[in-house]
Design a protein that fits this description.
Length: 226
């Protein structure tokens, strides 16, 4: 998909309470750089990037602006009492034809991010279950192509990565989590994406190990780092 048709929305408003480090997860150190910068490094070809802030908003905004000056910010004053959809909808209201949801606690394989951004139409990203409290996806196959058929906290063979592209005119006026917005649109095309999400201390440890392995592999093959 051409980048001019999509807005990238990174949701960074939450407090990261389960991680208990006193900083937003977007500011977690990932081998010398904040997580949000690692994400922005993957979005250099995207002209419309929006970051939703709340907890420690100034710190997140200053960090983002130190790397990239053209990012748009949306402030969620109710970040303690709204879910992920509340933040996403704030930034999506004036977005382009398609809005891409990217959680501020997600590391993504660079090649997979490029593939996701280039895929046409609405879609969701999924991976093998890795986190302690996943949102699961039940896949189904149509003409050999995978689709997300259902979301659940209890059952499903894949984990939703938090990545999704949604037509702006399909967005509801209100919802709690982003996957709640997606449920009326199911089934949606599904892309398997290599990612690590950080919700807990153990997730963070595993994400750092995963990032280092992936970066080492990219450097050995002559591909730019993550």
């Amino acid at each position: 998909m051409h980048e001019s048709r999509q807005s990238i929305i990174i949701s960074c408003a939450g407090m990261g309470a389960r991680l208990n480090r006193g900083v937003p997860k977007a500011l977690l150190d990932i081998d010398g750089k904040p997580l949000i910068i690692r994400q922005l490094e993957l979005l250099g070809d995207c002209s419309d990037v929006r970051v939703v802030v709340g907890y420690q908003a100034r710190e997140v905004m200053d960090t983002v602006s130190s790397y990239r000056k053209d990012v748009l910010f949306a402030y969620n004053p109710d970040y303690q009492t709204t879910g992920t959809a509340g933040s996403f909808l704030l930034a999506a209201a004036s977005g382009r034809e398609y809005c891409v949801a990217l959680d501020g606690d997600l590391l993504v394989n660079p090649a997979d991010m490029r593939r996701f951004l280039q895929t046409e139409g609405e879609c969701v990203g999924a991976c093998a279950p890795t986190t302690e409290e996943p949102v699961l996806i039940t896949p189904e196959y149509r003409s050999g192509r995978p689709y997300a058929a259902a979301f659940s906290r209890e059952r499903g063979s894949l984990e939703w990565t938090g990545l999704a592209r949604i037509r702006r005119d399909h967005l509801p006026s209100d919802a709690w989590h982003i996957y709640h917005m997606l449920e009326p649109l199911l089934p949606l095309p599904l892309l398997k994406i290599r990612t690590r999400e950080i919700d807990t201390a153990e997730d963070y440890r595993q994400a750092l190990e995963w990032f280092r392995r992936n970066r080492a592999g990219a450097l050995e093959s002559g591909v730019g780092g993550a």
